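Annex B, item 7. Sequence and structure tokens for protein A, then protein B.
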Amino acid sequence: NECELTFTKVDGTKRTMPCTLDAKRLPPVIVKESAKEKKPNDQVMSVFCTDKQEWRSFRIMNAEEIRVIVSSNFAE
């Protein structure tokens, strides 16, 4: 699905972001070598922002509303 997520950013401002985790709408995966491995953080979620066409993350506890704006067609 494509959703509209409203959350409070770390700086205290509100943000409403159209986003998705639908594999059909995500960009191709590009594997980059990194000097340091990131530790998983179960308090933060990454989503693909459909208006910026970039990955964004937010603190789960700061999410206020999630609304489905485009539903995936599971019959495909």
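Protein B:
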Amino acid sequence: MSCFVLLITDLTAVHHEIASHTRGIRLVTREPHQLTRQDWDSAAMVLVDAQAAPMLRARPQPLPHRDALIQLVDPEDHAEPDMYRHALDLGASHLITIPDAAGALRKQISQVVDSPRMVVAILDPAPTGEVGTITTACLALASAAAGEHLGLLDARHSSVDLHAALTCARFDPLPAGRGSVHVLFAPDEHPPTGEEIRQTMTDLARQHAVTLVHLDPHQPHTRALLDGVDLVIVPVSSQTATEPHARDVVSAARRHTPHVHVHITGADLHGDVAEAIAASAGAGYPSMSASTRGAVPTDSSHWSAALTDGSHHRQLWKVITRHRPRAGRTT
């Protein structure tokens, strides 16, 4: 039988929530009364909804303890006095609150997947979104040059046309070969809802090892979408890097996603900029990088230079490879 994650629940909402995090591995859902011993023994990982846990304990023939068993907890379930007793009796190795600890769940799932999937969000704090568009294009070009097959969802519009940027730029593929970029553009006249974006993210992530999502951090649904993201890249110009709106986006991203990286661009970079950003954010500030070639794209010549700068592409791609989930073994 192929490798799969077994979810035990009779709640449709729980199934939809977990489906958005089981990227690169098949999800099989069973209601407690439908569960078979073969399902239990064959699954690479078992996820048990907190409401299903007492039903499993009450089975006439107890289920044997097994590795890679996680009990899922709703934020409202923390007041349940028997929650930990259920987890201990079932032999759960983790209690994970969903959606608050979605990152922890994806990390556990990545341990049983041969090729873990990754979703990266690009959040440009500036209202124009131009730096975010260029960063997204550069990352897409870098992935193709590295021989990757990338999924890209452009759910934010700016004065820089992402389609034109991708089709006009030239790049030199690495010896590994030329990859591909599967791009979906959100329509101007009918912007997708947050749920539609989430479903598209899930679909792309099932088909590609890495998926980029270009989002507007100022939209009300964006923060909820970050619960399904592995890495957030916040591109900022050197002129706006220390402004409050940039710090707000970084702070919000850190509350929802396990890794946040700030990428500073501009022709007037100096050491004080990075120090000022770190000082304004306090201890534990996320990782940072900088590029003097990726100037703020006020005209086509500026963003064309950024798109043809192979070193800039590789610098951004290193951020993704550094935070990419690795397959391993659960304990």
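Comment on protein B: The CA atoms of residues 62 and 286 lie 46 Å apart.
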